[in-house]
Amino acid sequence: MNMKGKIDLYAKIRHEYRWGVGTIRGLAEMFKVHRRLVRDALDNPLPPKRKIPLRQHTSLASAIPLIDVLLLADRDVPYSQKHSAPSIHHQIQSELAGLRVAGSTVRGYVRKRKIELGLGSQRVNLAAERTVVFEWMRAVQQGAISRAEMKKELSHVLEFDKLLRGTREGPLAQRKKAMTVLSHEKGVGWPLVCSFLHLSRRSVRRYWKRYQEGSTAALFAKRVNTRRKSQDDRIRQAVFALLHSPPSTYGINRTTWKMADMQEILRTQGHPLSHHLIRTFIEAAGYKWRKARVALTSKDPNYQTKVDGIVKILTELKDDEAFFSIDEFGPFAVKKRGGRKRVGPEETYTVPQWEKSKGSLIITAALELSRNQITHFYSNKKNTQEMIKMTDLLLTQYRNCKTIYLSWDAASWHISKDLFEHIGRRNNEGLAEGYPIVYAERNEHFRVHPKRAGRKIWGQERVQSEFHEGNNCKDPLYYW
After folding, report:
1. Burial of 446 from C-beta contacts in 10 A (0-12 / 13-18 / 19+)
2. What region, left, alpha or beta, does residue 405 occupy, with left being phi > 0 and alpha being psi -120 to 50 degrees?
3. How high is the pLDDT of residue 443?
4. How is 389-406 classified by DSSP, letter by letter?
5. pLDDT for residue 200
6. Domain segments of the chain: what residues?
7. 197 Cβ neighbours under 8 A, 6+ residues apart
């Protein structure tokens, strides 16, 4: 029980004795204490102080002379430069290496010894000294003290100019390091330096140690972390060992790794890594996360030979020759479609979710690659007869051409026997039949102005506007 509790207990006993039970035995039973304590409470309103036995400092005996010397030397120095109990304990450990003594033991003896030597009364000047020291350090940082005056005061400092420059230039960390060294060279104690610069004592001592070992070069040198995870071969091997094993080995029902799964498995293996660090290991080894790109392929064993032939024809195409690319679009239903439309005030534009089609259309068109001319007509079906109609139409429209080349995809009606027979007859007869239906206005404009007609269409092609076997001209939004 502490002293406050004993005082309260004594007061309760005296009150009960006077106004309550009134007997020593009854009070002892009520408060569950000895009758001797009841008598002491009735005789004295305050409990006696605890007796502290005098014990010999057996573990500290060999260090007491050193402590007394240090404390006696503190009589004629400012308070900020006096030895504290932690600094005395550190000096004991460095000078008396074989002596093992606790810091609390040193602290208790230093406290008692300072009182005996009369050193505790000098704390009165601590506030005034703190103010003086802080004003000097602030003046150094702001350049209020001239270099000559500081040089006279700190003439023993070897690299004075570099330290003085460091207090006013460079990043904040460098300014704090230079200010720490200059303050300590002036004799300012560590507690005031730590308080003014907002640093821990560990940091201040580390700066001073670096300066003693390697001067300003070591003090201002950037510290490089030599234990970076990205350079640890053990962690890199763990990442690739996991990457080379299937996820099913670790109970994950997947065939490929996800970043979150890799991070979780590595954490269970004792390697807590971030997503960025895992990517760093993988990219440093040359690996990349890529999505598969669908490439156009052909089953034709003579594909490359045919492509080379087309390229050769287009390269050597003459003015009296034409090369057409033929295809169909559709069938598509004739009905309302969603999209953007200019509407009037308070007008709502809606499209029914379910509506009956007003019919369907198929457009068959041929684009002449060298002249950029389009020939088209509407069809009801996709069959050989429509292709025969297109060949006759092109023969009629381009009757002045010596040679007409036709190209299309591998649809069944494009490679039928009837179509080949018809083309063979036309080649032999050289007759012109059918009727031309073309974009007359557009084609006439391009004949007069043989260049790109505007910027709304031309220049926005999905691929470069030239023939190449790797071009994928089909729009991904095309679902027909």
Report:
1. middle
2. beta
3. 64
4. HHHHHHHHHTTT-SEEEE
5. 92
6. 3-43, 61-118, 126-220, 229-284, 304-336+358-480
7. 176, 179, 180, 204
How far apart are alpha carbons 3 and 51 in whole angstroms?
13
Instruction: Name the maximum alpha-carbon separation found in the chain.
Output: 146
Per-residue confidence (pLDDT) for residue 436, from 0 to 100: 37
In sequence order, what are the residues at sequence separation of 6 or more whose Cβ sits closer than 8 angstroms to the Cβ of residue 167? 140, 141, 175, 178, 179, 182
Reading the block at residue 86, the tokens are: 């932690």
Query: CA–CA separation, 297 vs 323, rounded Å?
Result: 23
Query: pLDDT (tens digit, 9 = 90+) per residue, 280-308?
Result: 888 888 777 678 877 777 777 888 888 88
For 73-111, write each residue's pLDDT tens digit.
877 776 666 777 878 888 888 888 778 888 888 888 888
What is the length of the chain?
Answer: 480
Q: How confident is the model at residue 307, as a pLDDT?
A: 84
Element holding 159 (H helix, E strand): none
Torsion angle of alpha carbons 260, 265, 269, 273, nearest 10°?
A: -10
Query: Given this chain, do its domains 126-220 and 304-336+358-480 carry the same CATH topology?
Result: no
Q: Give the mean pLDDT of the chain.
A: 81
Q: Greater confidence, 448 or 440?
A: 448
Report the distance separating Cα 369 and Cα 322, nearest Å: 8
Looking up tokens 């003290």, which residue turns up? 145
- Please compute the mean of the pLDDT values over residues 118-145 and round it to a whole number: 76
Distance between CA atoms of residues 369 and 293, nearest Å: 28
- CB atoms inside a 10 Å sphere around CB 16: 18
What's the first-to-final CA gap in the chain, in angstroms? 93
- Which of 323-343 are b and which e, b meaning 16 or more Cβ less than 10 Å from the residue's Cβ? bbbbebeebeeeeeeeeeeee
Tokens of 414: 């494009």
- Report which secondary-structure segment, H or E, holds 476: none
| CATH number for the segment(s) 304-336+358-480 | 3.30.420
Cα dihedral 329→334→337→340 (10° resolution): 80
Angle, CA of 412, 414 and 415, to the nearest 5°: 70
How far apart CA 375 and CA 440 sit, in angstroms, is: 9
If one looks up domain 126-220 in CATH, what number appears? Answer: 1.10.472
Phi, psi of 144 (to 5 degrees): -80, -20
CA–CA gap between residue 480 and residue 474 (Å, rounded): 11
| Whole-number Å distance between alpha carbons of 264 and 262 | 5
